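Exercise (ungraded).
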Amino acid sequence: MDVTRRGFLTISGAVGSGIALSSLGINLNPTKAYANELNKMNRVRTAKQVTTVCCYCAVGCGLICSVDKVTGKIFNIEGDPDHPVNEGSLCAKGAGFFDLTEANKYRLRKVLYRAPKSDRWEEKDWNWAFARIARLVKDTRDKDFITTNSKGQIVNRTESIGHLGSSNVDSEECWLMSVISRAMGLVYVDHQARV
Ligand code: SF4
């Protein structure tokens, strides 16, 4: 829909008159999003502000968490402009930090398992998952563990298992996973952030 300057002023007047613009075929979603953002800004202004540091990598960017004083819950996380490392900016991982909090209703809370050749996911509990992972790792190492290479040198490695770390793994968890993987003789160890 083309809107002339006069038409725009007419529409602007219509807003003041409380006429529903959506009935004119105009998409109000950006306006609603802007209004929601204003509400969020007001909440941020009145919230308790807590500073912390992003856990994902050694850069150590500063974050500000806004905590609702009534519910005690975090409702916004953004870069800290006063932090000397990042001065308010964040990479994509840090910028998505809020999605890790319990406020994200889409966050995975259960183990999802898809059986070989199946096209659907099943919910499983953690004990089931731990037992299955342990069984598969043990069976694979028993079957495929390599003690020496073609030159007769001791290598003690497992080439049939790979480990790929997730983007939601922090520095300390990466270290832990790396140590555990090496202890089991894994050589194919990688991380999503590097890929
Ligand atoms: S925001 Fe990005 S660059 Fe900064 S610490 Fe987190 S992961 Fe590292």
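Further reading is listed at the end of the chapter. For now, observe: The CA atoms of residues 33 and 39 lie 10 Å apart. The domain at 47-104 is CATH 2.20.25.90 (N-terminal domain of TfIIb).
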